Amino acid sequence: IPPEIVALTDYEALARQHLGEQAWAYYAGGAADEITLRENRSGYDALKLLPRVLRDMTGGHTRMTLLGQTYDHPIFLAPIAYQRMAHAQGELATVLGASALKAGMVVSTRASVPLEEIAAAAQTRLWFQLYMQPDRAFTQRLVQRAEAAGYQALVLTVDAPLNGIRNRQQRAQFHLPPGVEAINLRGMTPPDLRPRQAGENVAFGALLDEAPTWQDIAWLRSITTLPILLKGILSSADAELAIQHGFAGVIVSNHGGRILDTLPATVDVLPQITAQVAGRIPVLVDGGIRRGTDVLKALALGASAVLIGRPYIFGLSVAGPIGVAHVLNILRAEFEVAMGLTGCATVSDITPDILWQR
Ligand code: HOC
C-alpha cells in the first residue's frame, strides 16, 4: 500500500486507474445527474459534532450486538455486484479482507463467484442479499443454498425493481467484461437483463408486473428460518410496514444513488425512520460513509450499524484483500478516534446529544 493512502478517499484516484473507464463508470457512477450520489456524501459533512469531555473512558471499545450476534465494530460491507470486474478473485478477495477485520459482509445475488465458495473462504459473518426473482422455485433454491452455506441473514433489496437511468454508464458504453457474470443466477435471466424489443415498455407492463410486492413477504418468510432485513427504504411508513411484515431489520438506502436520482440523502431521512421504528428492530444505513465521524453520526441518529460500498471496491481494485482490509481498518480506527474524542466509551454511549444543534 503506498504510504500516501491514509484515508478512504485516497483510494479513489488510484482505483480509477486500476478499474479502467467502463468499470469505473459502473462502480463510481450514480443515476442521471448524480445528485443523490453527491448528497449522500454532503449530508454527513453538514452535520457537526458536539463533544463531551472528562468522561470516564476506561474499557472503551467498538463492539456491538446485532440480531443476537456480537460484532467487533458496526461497519459492514454492502452488497456489490460483479466484483471480479474490480479484481481477478472478486468476492473471494473481498471476503478475505472482511475476515481480517471481522467485518460483516453482505454478498450480492449478483456476485461473480459462487456463494458457496465465498462462504468457504469466510472467517467472518456473512449475510446474503436477495433480489426476489419472478421464478419462485429459483428464489427458493437460492435461499436454500445461502442457508446451507452458512449465511446468517437475508437482505431483501426492494429499491430496484428496475434499473435506474445510468447516463455515466451509457456514455462509457458499459458492458460486463467477458468471463464476469452473475454466476449464482446461472440458468435464469433476471427480467432486467432480458433483451427488449424496440418500442417495448421499459417498466409498466414489463418489469413492474413481475416485481415483488408486500404480498410476497409471507411466502419468503415461510421458506426460511433466517432473519430477513429489508434494504432500500427511505420512508418511515415503509419502515412501519416492514415491522408489520415481520422483517428483522431495515436498511435505509437509496442504492448508493444508483437507481432514482434526486432521492434524499440517507442520512437526512435516517432520523425519521429511527424515530418511527423506536428500537423495535435494528435500523442500518448505507450511502456516503467515508469517515469514522460519518459512522459516529449515523449511530448518533439511531442506526445500529452502517454499510460501506464504493470505498471497499476501490480498495479491492487497488490492492485486493489487503486493500479491503486497509479500507476497513482506516474507517474502524477513525470511528474509534471519533468515539474517544466525543466522550463515547461504547456504542451505547453514542446518542443524539453528540450532534450539534445550530
Ligand atoms: C433491475 C435490477 O445492485 C447495481 C446492482 C444491480 C442493480 C440491479 C437493478 O448495479 O447497483
**Structural class, from secondary structure content?**
alpha/beta
CATH C-level name: Alpha Beta
CATH architecture: Alpha-Beta Barrel
First-residue to last-residue Cα separation: 40 Å
H and E order: HHEEEHEHEHEHHHEHEHEHEH
Which stretches of 5+ consecutive residues score pLDDT under 50?
none
Mean pLDDT: 97
Textual characterization of the structure:
By secondary structure, the protein is an alpha/beta fold. It has one domain (10-354): TIM Barrel (Alpha-Beta Barrel), CATH 3.20.20. It is built from twelve helices and ten strands. Strands 3-10-9-8-7-6-5-4 form an eight-stranded parallel beta sheet. Helix 3 packs parallel to helix 4 (115-121). The protein is globular, with a radius of gyration of 20 Å. The mean pLDDT is 97. The structure holds (2S)-2-hydroxyoctanoic acid (HOC). The site of (2S)-2-hydroxyoctanoic acid has 8 residues, from loops.
Show the helix and strand layout.
Layout: H1 10-28, H2 35-46, E1 64-66, E2 69-71, E3 75-77, H3 91-100, E4 105-107, H4 115-121, E5 126-130, H5 136-149, E6 154-157, H6 167-171, H7 207-210, H8 217-222, E7 228-233, H9 236-244, E8 249-252, H10 266-277, E9 283-286, H11 292-300, E10 305-308, H12 310-342
Parallel strand pairs: 3-10, 4-5, 5-6, 6-7, 7-8, 8-9, 9-10
Antiparallel strand pairs: 1-2
Helix pairs in contact: 1-12, 3-4, 3-12, 9-10, 11-12
This protein binds (2S)-2-hydroxyoctanoic acid.
Quick tags:
single chain, 358 residues, alpha/beta, TIM Barrel, eight-stranded parallel beta sheet, two-stranded antiparallel sheet, 12 helices, 11% strand, globular, binds (2S)-2-hydroxyoctanoic acid
